[in-house]
Amino acid sequence: MTLGYIVRRLGVFVIILWLAASVNFALPRLAPVNPIREMLVRASRGGAAGNTDMNVVIKTYEAKFGLDQPLWKQYLNYLNDLVHFDLGVSITNFPNKVLDIILRALPWTIGLLLFSTLIAFVIGTLLGALIAWPNSPRFLGLLLAPLLTLSAIPFYLLGLVLVYFLAFSTKIFPISGGYSLGVIPRMNWAFARDVIWHSSLPALAIILASLGSWAIGMRGMMIIGLEEDYITFAEAKGLKNRDIFSKYALRNALLPQTTSLALSLGFIVSGAVLVEIIFGYPGVGSLLYRSIQQFDYYMIYGIVIILIFAIGLATLIIDLVYPFLDPRISYQKH
Predict the structure, then answer these.
(1) Given a cut of 60, is residue 333 above it in pLDDT?
(2) CATH class, 98-294+319-325 region
(3) CA–CA separation, 249 vs 261, rounded Å?
(4) Which of the two residues, 270 and 157, has the higher pLDDT score?
(5) Rounded distance, CA 37 to CA 22, Å?
């Protein structure tokens, strides 16, 4: 890997971020709704606006958020703020900053999705490898049909089923929330145990729904790898089945799985939006859903930009690390 290649990849990364940020700026403004007016009308219906002249207040807020400026100037201000890591101020949670609100929700999503993704990846990968391995116990082959079924079920649908059976009917787990009502978040074991208890059901929904995909993908890569010459050579050398499985078949089949895992980790920031909504989980997915409902431009901008950055960074890292994982891959010209 050369320095020139790294610089080119970084350049492509920056261009992708710029294009995605530009699309992110344009899409919310296609909606025929004035976010400031919608917010203030909602407040007036609840009696919060009193007898204030709505038009004066709307103009004041539009000037505050820069929505009274020409579109091209709004775009330049938007890019300038991004360069300085300023995501703006939330329209519906004024004067709270977007970055502060996202940072409060981000640990919830990262904790839930990171744990769930890694658990599903490890279990699914091992199951897929063992199912494809000819010397595995036969009963493992019976798991193929359930895994195929799980791979076809969306997160949110499985979440609804789990809520009905494990929360509503049997009351084993809480129906919703990140922690119990009335509990004050503290850095202690009692609060951590309460959080783990509330996150168990959404984590189970994500793990079960992801398990099948990881297992089916790994099984396919193992079947392809078992036909390669290096497996035949290892068998001809008289190596133990355990060594052939772990050092030859499993190790080479893991490379495509590693790429998929890196991309999945990039999507962790967005979270399983519908899962968080179903379980009332206080993560980034629920925050994005509420922001779209309330036409909070700057909150939508901030969440999507962080999501784009996470996916792009994960792709960049795996692209740069891949030659170290597989020495056969080289980006140098021959």
Answers:
(1) no
(2) mainly alpha
(3) 19
(4) 157
(5) 24
